[in-house]
Amino acid sequence: MGSLSWKHARQPVFLSITLGFNGMTSSPSSRTPSRAESLRQRLDRHWPTAEALLRRLYAGVPDVEDWLVRMRNVVSTAALNRPAPLAERDDRRLAEPDWFQRSNQLGYCFYVDRFAGTLAGVQARLGYLADLGVTYLHALPLLAMQAGDNDGGFAVADYRAIEPRLGRTEDLTALAQAAHGAGMALCLDVVCNHTARDHAWAQAARAGDPRYRAYYHVLESAESVAAYEATLGQVFPKTAPGNFTPEPALARDGGQAWVWTTFYPYQWDLNYANPAVFQEMLEVLLHLANQGVDVFRLDSTPFLWKAPGTACRGLPQTHWVVRAWRALLAIAAPAVLLKGEAIVDPDDVVSFFGRDDATGLPAANECHLAYNNGMMTALWLAQATGDAAPAHALLDRLAVRPRQAAWITYVRCHDDIIWDALAALIPQETLHRVSAFYAGATPGSYALGAAFQADGDGAPSTNGMAASLVGLRPEGRPGEADTDAALARLLQLYQVTLALDGLPVLYMGDEIALTNAPLAGLPAGEGRWLHRPDMDWNRAAERHDSATAAGTFHTALRRLIRVRATLDALSGIEPARPLAGLPPGILGFERVGARAVLCLANLTGQAVTVSLPTTTDAWRDAVAETAIDLTALPLGPWQTRWIVAAGPTSEVAP
Ligand code: OTU
């Protein structure tokens, strides 16, 4: 498998379309390369990588040589069709390749309808986001979705159309332009593992077209289904048990047929062993990139390739598919980033940043970004248990990240918190206890979340908005002891997250401590809607009012975001290094840099005084702007501090 040797005589792959057509050539005296010249440079640089990966993936496929020529033409055409403002944006981004790692970057993730109704509505809210410091918009799925149940848009019916309720293609381009004008990047989901059962490809397959049947994984016997199931896990064991769905319309010659559906029965897994599928999704990526999308969240990245006798998660070929997309995008839309969505064991997540084939060592040749679900989960666990040790151990492990790639750091997202992703690090008993804690099912728990589901004997995952998981009641007011404690916990989660290495992404509503969606009206059987409420713009209007929970939290968070932007050591390049010798309830790490930052967080409800060995007594709390004594540092209940060596401070923007 994966041999680089090719059975046919290798023919060089030529670019068979004309380069340097009208308007694309530069005058001989110009020092800037023309579009055609820079395309040629990028082909020279990245095509060999793409070609090698594609040969590995598709060796043995008939007519692969012709297909490779077509792939090269597809990316070249997309490169030449890239709108000039986007090509210029590429050049600017390439001149500052660490842009997404800088400490002034902040993401915001939202469902378009829940946040602002439509794409035009989102555009109208850019001022609200800019005021918060947002530089990166992650709009959850907005492409045309299957009618009825569609997993919040993760069942795409048409990758070339916008969901009509949300707007039209022009609205997406307008939003991208407005975002770019406001200094923001745009991230969209590409649901690449599966299509909706309603997608035209699936419809054609059901109508008996063999070409489209081959886009999916169709099994024809109960034995082959059972054989695969024996080694597969389940993502939604309660709401969508099993990985296959009977689909009589796909049956041939009076037989039976099952289609592979890792997620819901209406989400049909695509067959990436078919190069036509690779090409279709590449063309989707190129199309959206040329609409102005800056970052692609590759949904369900680990599942792309299937092989019998395996868990079909993170197989080598899955990584090659993603690496090939990266190399091809580097030709056509060179500043576009890939974000891997792999909510799995932390070591496996790191593998999505890439690997050097020769040495086997981590390399930055796959996803530029990946979710740090490990630290997110470990932080929630740390607050529930008052034990910092697992988070410290995890920080040590995560330091292998290639420096040119970055984490997405976050507190909450639209999915459940999957405790089992830490199963390799944390005893099952602890994961079960924490799951019960966040469901409010253990004595003394303040949490207002709900248990979702687990694979096998695993700990059930947790649903709920961050504000509810820390125990905030919707009507809670500052000054009440339980409200103040809840807000301190929420601020701690964000203060620690904003100090970790990565691009932090706020989940919609967290900035105003928005609590769970009202139970009435939630779709039955899909508990994740608990944390997908409508944006509460009345609550947002209270964001400057310190007499409200929303106002207290928004003011504090906004201040953290502004201070962070002035602290270069909080960029996403160098990893956070855990501090040794702290009491068990204190989480502490250092961010190295010209001006290092220490982050210390008291995970408990009791005030403590910590003492750190230091050669200088000149330290400051960077947020409170007060001098502090590191040898006798008081930390209140759930208090967090960012500590810097005293010295000239940078201006914090108002
Ligand atoms: C993703 O999540 C999306 O974020 C979910 O909202 C979708 O339902 C799902 O894909 C299907 O499109 O199980 O709980 O390792 O864990 O792909 C989250 C990755 C999920 C999976 C992830 C999936």
UniProtKB/TrEMBL annotation:
SUPFAM superfamilies: (Trans)glycosidases
InterPro entries: GH, GH13_cat_dom, O16G_dom_2
GO biological process entries: carbohydrate metabolic process
Glycosyl hydrolase family 13 catalytic domain segment(s): 109-564
UniProt superkingdom: Bacteria
One Pfam short name: Alpha-amylase
Name of the protein this chain belongs to: Maltopentaose-forming alpha-amylase
